[in-house]
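tool=predict chain=A
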Amino acid sequence: MITKELMENLFINNVTEISFPREKEKPIREKIVYKYRGKDKWAITDGGSNCWNKVTEEWEWEIRPSERTKIFLLQCRCNFEEGLKIIKELIAQKSVGGRKND
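tool=predict ok
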């Protein structure tokens, strides 16, 4: 289990990204990548160009840094603990093509 203490130790070694592989029967998103974005802000991505929007609970295109609005950052960034909770939920469910499958 990834804990805040483990993450702090990883930062000592300049680790700013962690991948969580998905089970083979749960693609299209084969992995979830947790990326540090500074000042206790994290992005949950699919390892490509999509990030998790915690408000809409859908994957969305991660726009260029110069085009990111305050609303985008509020919706698509989280603190460490909040992000881990979201990742646990994503790993437990199927998320295909930007939508959750029931």
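DSSP finds three helices and seven strands in the chain. Strands lie at 17-21, 31-36, 42-45, 50-53, 58-61, 94-96, 99-101.
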